[in-house]
Design goal:
Strand content: 35-45%
Number of helices: 6
CATH superfamily of the largest domain: TonB-dependent receptor, plug domain
CATH topology of the largest domain: Ferric Hydroxamate Uptake Protein, Chain A, domain 1
Length: 437
């Protein structure tokens, strides 16, 4: 069991200073003054991409803030938070997301603003941190998984794509993403969405129930979201289903050696064509008597039992099943004080397929492995054997070779907040966030 846990106990008192217009009057002077023209009135907004709420004009912030609303998410038809973030221009770089089949965190969905690494993008939910993913990204840095944030509960997303490390620390060097969730339900809503990729595969179904209750002092909302997404297999695409699709031309278009025997110099020891014919039913009937130029004992072609289609046994996008639930409630104690409680829980099961397993006779050395030739008494020569992989036929089908990742999250925040005087606000809360897999 791997887990990441974040426990927070915070008491903060903030002062908000109202913004002043450039046309506000200065110190009064004697005598009549000419009346200045009224300038454009700039709407003020509260910037939520910071631990310190502050008022600023829409066009006066030193760092750009991008806001994605729930209407934007609905209009674009995004399935989950990963879809939303993939369409964000500031989210750069290659990430270990739902397309990964190996690595340290194939079940997670990360965000990487400005390509500086997920560990330098701070993710907040309602302005508060959540627990890190239980495994390090790439094996060397912490990061936050956004896959369990329910899409239908998003009120808006504030993306501060400039550094705010002076407030938050080094994990906000690239920016801050604040997911603001809804606090009040507009009746009861049942939403069902279904879709499929244009070229086939990757079909998805999402069912969401949202409801709540409100009166003069109390507001509540809860949602349950079910997601079922099928994988996209490489063999379902005509540009990834064969080594013949390689862009390098003939030098990259040779068949993979499904069954290979080598001499001590690394040249192929040719099997008989009958041997390959006996194996031809494997890999969907694609194994044949193949050759590769320059890999024969005398510098000619080397022969082996190979396949062009083996590369198609992998997922371009992983399968995913998840259930996410979120509930929020607030009670107005007085005109200037209220209690609040937020609870989020999620469970995710991801299926991936990282091509069939392979083996060769070798020994570990310097963090890797090196081949070890052996003397074959049956042939009277030194040989090196290699299975490029075990075919799906030998594994018992594609499902038998799938990699399964399970992830469970829970987050709780409870406290009191309010204001006193003309400019002072306060908030005290207890937070617990846990991610295990």
């Amino acid at each position: 069991m791997r887990s990441g846990v974040l426990v927070t106990l915070v008491l903060s008192v903030l002062v908000a200073v109202p913004a002043t217009s450039q046309n506000s009057p200065g110190p009064q002077s004697q005598g009549p003054q000419p009346q200045a023209e009224a300038g454009p009135q700039l709407e003020t907004v509260v910037v939520t991409g910071s631990r310190i709420p502050r008022l600023t004009a829409l066009d006066a912030g030193p760092a750009p803030v991008v806001t994605i609303t729930s209407a934007d998410i609905l209009q674009k038809g995004f399935t989950d938070m990963s879809d939303v973030m993939r369409n964000l221009n500031q989210n750069l770089g290659s990430l270990d997301n739902n397309t990964q089949t190996d690595g340290f965190s194939p079940g997670a969905q990360a965000v990487d603003l400005r390509g500086m690494g997920p560990n330098h993008t701070l993710v907040l939910v309602n302005g508060r941190r959540i627990a890190d993913y239980p495994q390090a990204y790439g094996g060397n840095s912490n990061f936050t998984d956004i896959s369990n944030i329910p899409t239908t509960m998003i009120d808006h997303i504030d993306v501060l794509s400039g550094s705010d490390s002076a407030v938050y620390g080094s994990d906000a060097i690239a920016g801050v993403i604040n997911f603001i969730l809804k606090k009040k339900a507009d009746g009861t809503t049942i939403d069902y969405r279904e879709g499929e990729t244009q070229l086939g595969g990757g079909s998805s179904q999402r069912l969401t129930l949202t409801s709540g209750y409100s009166n003069e002092r109390f507001d509540s909302i809860f949602t349950v979201q079910l997601l079922n997404q099928q994988p996209v297999w490489a063999f379902r695409r005509n540009f990834t289903d064969s080594t013949l699709d390689a862009p390098g031309g003939p030098s990259d278009n040779y068949a993979d050696p499904v069954f290979g025997r080598y001499d001590m110099n690394g040249n192929f020891i040719a099997p008989s064509p009958a041997t390959c014919n006996a194996l031809s039913s494997l890999d969907g009937g694609s194994v044949f008597y193949a050759s590769r130029p320059g890999y024969g004992p005398t510098g000619g072609p080397g022969y082996y039992c190979g396949s062009h289609a083996d590369i198609g046994y992998g997922t371009l996008e992983n399968g995913r099943k998840s259930i996410n639930a979120y509930g929020s409630g607030s009670y107005q104690l007085t005109e200037h004080a209220s209690l609040f409680l937020d609870l989020q829980a999620g469970y995710t099961h991801q299926d991936s397929y990282n091509s069939p397993l392979q083996w060769q006779n070798s020994v570990a050395q310097n963090g890797g492995s090196v081949p070890v030739p052996f003397y074959n008494s049956a042939t009277g020569q030194i040989e090196q054997w290699q299975r490029m992989y075990f075919t799906p036929n030998e594994e018992g089908g594609l499902q038998a070779g799938e990699i399964h990742n399970f992830d469970t999250t829970i987050s709780l925040n409870a406290g009191i907040k309010g204001s006193f005087g003309s400019n002072w606000t306060y908030e005290g809360f207890y937070g617990h966030s846990q991610n295990s897999g």
